[in-house]
Amino acid sequence: MLMVEFKEIFMSESYLRGMKLDLGKNPVVIDIGANIGFFTLFILTRLHGSRVFSYEPMPSNFRQLKRNLQMNPGLPVTCIQKAVTGRSGDITLHFDSSCKYTTAATIHEVEGKNPETITVEGVSLSDVFRENNLERCDLLKMDCEGAELEILYNCPQEIMDRIGNIVMEVHGGPEDYRNIEEYLRRMGFATQRRPVGMLRAWRN
């Protein structure tokens, strides 16, 4: 499964293909659902001078994320073992424990060989900005297995106004896609659907 993730991010460039990467000097990137760090490492190779804040709640994923970054010392990355959701406080994540590194931990119940749950600390997008003293986010990446609606809908306008670009994987059906696009347009973004469930949004 991780090889598929690697190919999608590094070889297919599934998040950024067709996207202009002129995000200004020293761009700030927030990686929600960092997993073991493929997108974090990829973006650092593409956006020189960038700072990345990587959020990953699952313990095994987070340990490997830290190991991968330790093999590349000195990178401008801050790793936070928390889930980004619509509110602050502990949340329950569902996952299949038969996978060593899960790419599908979710707030929704799951089916699998060994379904389990874990309680993790959750923070809102407002908390992310406040705790890291961020004035802006030039690129917000989200791959959070269905929590994207909750994150965006509970984000205040003043925080949304400080986000320049969004790349995200949308989980759910066509109605979820439409709802997210309509919401982002109301927040002042233009949107573009991408293959394999991806959505891109940028400031008009």
What is this entry, summarized?
With 204 residues, the chain is of the alpha/beta class.
Description:
With 204 residues, this protein is of the alpha/beta class. The protein has a single domain (2-86, 124-203), classed as Vaccinia Virus protein VP39 (Rossmann fold), CATH 3.40.50.150. The protein has seven helices and ten strands. The protein has helices at residues 2-11, 38-46, 59-70, 125-131, 148-153, 157-160, 174-186, and strands at residues 28-32, 51-55, 77-80, 83-84, 89-96, 115-123, 139-142, 165-169, 189-194, 198-203. The strands form two sheets. Strands 3-2-1-7-8-10-9 form a seven-stranded mixed beta sheet, sandwiched between helices. Strands 4-6-5 form a three-stranded mixed beta sheet. The longest helix has 13 residues, at 174-186. The protein is globular and about 45 Å long. The N and C termini lie far apart (36 Å).
